[in-house]
Amino acid sequence: MALLTGAGLVVKLVLILLIFFSVVSWAIILFKLFQVHRANSESDRFMDFFWKSKRFDAIASQVDRFANSPLTVLFNEGYGELKKVVNDHGPSEGGALSTDLGGIENVSRALRRATNSEITRLEKYLTFLATTGSTSPFIGLFGTVWGIMTAFEGIGKTGSASLAVVAPGIAEALIATAIGLVAAIPAVMAYNHFQHKIRVLINEMDSFSTEFLNIVQRNIAGK
Amino acid sequence: MTTRYPASNTNFSIFFIVSIILHLAVLLLMIWWTKLFPFQMTIQEAYYVDVVNLPVAAPRSGSPTQKGNDNEAPTPPPRPAVPENMAVPAPPQKSTRTTKQLPAVKSHEKTSTPAEPDEFAERMAKLAGKAESQQQEAALERIRRKMTTSGSGRSGMPGASGNEAGSSYSAYIQSRLKDAFRETISYTSKQPEVLIRLVIGADGRISRKKIEQSSGDRSFELAALRAIDIASEKFPPPPGHRDFEGVFVFRPQGISNGGKL
């Protein structure tokens, strides 16, 4: 603790900044762990439910149970668009979309838009983790360099270069690098982990979109 | 257009608070840990040993007393260089001169080798005589040199002659110091040199002795001071009943007069 309190002003500011980075990045890590875990588990459950169900309106009535899954959002978007397309064409054509494929195109666009918005939502705050991972070692290094500079100034003033004079200043300076690394290492690890998890979710969303469009087209073609 | 987003976006602040609590917990843990096991920087003093000037006995390098004082070293005995080729006949008049010097050798040679007895005996006698004369010359030279270094004709006694008062006296003191110092040398370093200023009072006793320039070799300086103590027991009073002051340079090879400086 004496190392933290005895440091100079610049080193203290650097330490405060690094601690702030660490706090925020850990908040993001915990938040993302929670978010990605819920998204994964609810997606699995939603897919089970989706394949068991016969009708879209039955799924739509139950979809609130899987509120945290990105697939739910996709389904809602696609189903809403499909309903609109069917309503616009009306029952005059017998509810058929077979003649013009514009309705399927609309549904596909809606699904792609929902996928993009879900990717944005999942990747939110991850850039902060990347920034923390790449910059906080340098910020810590800056604090260390500054601390060593002031330590050498002190040595020049006292005129003695014994270990007892040099060591505390350098130890105070080095704690900035240590805290920078402490902040950076979990951030980099979490960033890579979440990147992988989110890529898996994006793949799931893409395959769900394709599946949804297939089902829509199959039903329309069958009619 | 988006029907709904999951509600988890709103509760990021909860995780922020959780993270702050986590960091505070780590900080408290660190404080508790440092309280439990106080962090102390123990700085050990480094001791450096000067190996070069360390007085280490080195018998192989030889005692400095053997190296010093070349003029006191005894001249090597003449070699009995017996020439192998004895065929060269010596002049007959020389043989008559040398026969009386070594009659025993000659008689012995005569009995052993009857063929060339006279020539061999002549040769041996000549060599022996030559060696003897060389030895005598060397001894004379040694005495002469000793007399010149002591400053006055009488070695071992302070001379009152000379323009500058005390000049020969200092030479005398130097020689006495040299004799005493040779016995007390107990150093092993290579080239120590210590300048000692001596002030000898009118009663012949040392009133002040001061190391003007240290050699860095403690044992050598102690030896030099001990030599002064030994020699000062027999110092006669300086001439003219005036205080004598002089600087002497102590080296392993001997003592030289540093003058008044």
From TrEMBL, chain A:
Keywords: Cell cycle, Cell division, Cell inner membrane, Cell membrane, Membrane, Protein transport, Transmembrane, Transmembrane helix, Transport. Residues 102-206 form the MotA/TolQ/ExbB proton channel domain. It is found in: Cell membrane; Membrane. It is a multi-pass membrane protein. InterPro entries: ExbB/TolQ_transport, MotA_ExbB_proton_chnl, Tol-Pal_TolQ. The chain crosses the membrane at residues 6-31, 125-149, 169-191. Its main location: membrane. It holds the Pfam family MotA_ExbB. It comes from the Bacteria. NCBIfam families: tolQ. Belongs to the exbB/tolQ family. This is Protein TolQ. It comes from Pelotalea chapellei.
TrEMBL record, chain B:
Keywords: Membrane, Transmembrane, Transmembrane helix. It comes from Pelotalea chapellei. It holds the Pfam family TonB_2. Residues 60-118, 147-166 are annotated as: Disordered. InterPro entries: TonB-dependent_transducer, TonB/TolA_C. The chain crosses the membrane at residues 12-33. It is found in: Membrane. This is Cell envelope integrity protein TolA. It is a single-pass membrane protein. Its main location: membrane.
